[in-house]
């Protein structure tokens, strides 16, 4: 990966954090632009061309959730990592539901943040091999190309990341997939890195809300204790 050709937009209102991140990213060879409020961040995100957007949630003028939603309405593939001081599942799920690729909780380690950014950038270039449709044992139908699905009479919509997770699980449906394997194959994290993130668990919980009749008793996307997650397909 040629880092010198990669551009990052940092949308963060705290000057000390913003300037520190700019210095770190420039040191690592990235081209960096920044914004210190929501409206400016959204304008730059929609008019510029960035390999990744680092987006704080709490911003003046417009919060990160609104910005992420506006970006996704225009571009489903734009890599986005959200910075958040909010660490409850519901708050994090809101950002991931809108299509963020990952989140990083404040306070964060610069080393961890750089590793997460490199993983998202790597994943955005590799892509996941996927079947055109996925049929689950609980009669849910998923259209991977259009990021849509059907659960009985209910129409479903998915983010690109959710489709990547489902596609990888479907391609290996004969066995449970460990959390660490999903981090490596879907999120692009290098093996044996000590990455502290609950993004896999939160994405799985979010998917179950869509594809399960009772998310607390999953019948399509199950947990195999001590082994990982398994998607039960109709094949």
How would you describe this structure to a colleague?
The chain is of the alpha/beta class. The chain has 2 domains: 124 residues, Response regulator (Rossmann fold, 3-Layer(aba) Sandwich); 99 residues, Arc Repressor Mutant, subunit A (Orthogonal Bundle). The protein has 8 helices and 11 strands. A 5-stranded parallel sheet has the order 2-1-3-4-5, with helices on both faces. Helix 3 links the parallel strand 3 and strand 4. Helix 2 packs parallel to helix 3. The longest helix has 17 residues. The chain starts with 6 loop residues before the first strand and ends with a strand.
Secondary structure elements and pairings:
Blueprint lengths: L6 E5 L3 H13 L3 E5 L2 H10 L4 E5 L7 H11 L5 E5 L4 H9 L4 E4 L4 H17 L6 E3 L5 E3 L4 E4 L2 E4 L2 H12 L7 H7 L13 H13 L9 E4 L3 E4 L4
Parallel strand pairs: 1-2, 1-3, 3-4, 4-5
Antiparallel strand pairs: 6-7, 7-8, 8-9, 10-11
Give the N-terminus to C-terminus distance in angstroms: 38 Å
Helix content percent band: 25-40%
CATH superfamily placement of the largest domain: Response regulator
Amount of beta strand? 15-25%
CATH fold topology of the largest domain = Rossmann fold
| Total beta-strand segments | 11
The SS-based structural class is alpha/beta
Query: How would you write the strand order of the largest sheet?
Result: 2-1-3-4-5
Domain count, please report it: 2
Task: Give the H and E element order.
Answer: EHEHEHEHEHEEEEHHHEE
The major pleated sheet works out as: 5 strands, parallel
Question: What is the CATH class name of the largest domain?
Answer: Alpha Beta
């Amino acid at each position: 990966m040629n880092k010198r050709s990669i551009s990052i937009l940092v949308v963060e209102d705290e000057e000390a954090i913003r300037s520190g991140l700019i210095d770190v990213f420039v040191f690592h060879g990235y081209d960096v632009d920044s914004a210190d409020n929501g409206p400016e961040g959204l304008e730059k995100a929609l008019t510029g061309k960035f390999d990744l957007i680092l987006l704080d949630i709490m911003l003046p003028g417009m919060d990160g959730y609104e910005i992420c939603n506006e970006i996704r309405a225009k571009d489903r593939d734009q890599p986005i990592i959200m910075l958040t001081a909010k660490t409850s599942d519901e708050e994090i799920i809101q950002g991931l539901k809108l299509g963020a690729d990952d989140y990083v909780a404040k306070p964060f380690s610069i080393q961890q943040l750089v590793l997460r950014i490199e993983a998202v950038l790597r994943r955005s270039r590799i892509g996941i091999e996927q079947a055109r449709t996925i049929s689950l044992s609980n009669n849910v139908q998923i259209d991977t190309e259009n990021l849509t699905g059907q659960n009985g009479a209910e129409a479903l919509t998915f983010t690109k990341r959710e489709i990547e997770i489902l596609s990888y699980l479907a391609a290996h449906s004969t066995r449970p997939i460990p959390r660490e394997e999903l981090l490596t194959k879907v999120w692009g994290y290098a093996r044996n890195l000590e990455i502290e993130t609950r993004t896999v668990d939160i994405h799985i919980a979010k998917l179950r809300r869509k594809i399960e009749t009772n998310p607390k008793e999953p019948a399509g996307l199950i947990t195999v204790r001590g082994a990982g997650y398994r998607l039960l397909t109709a094949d």
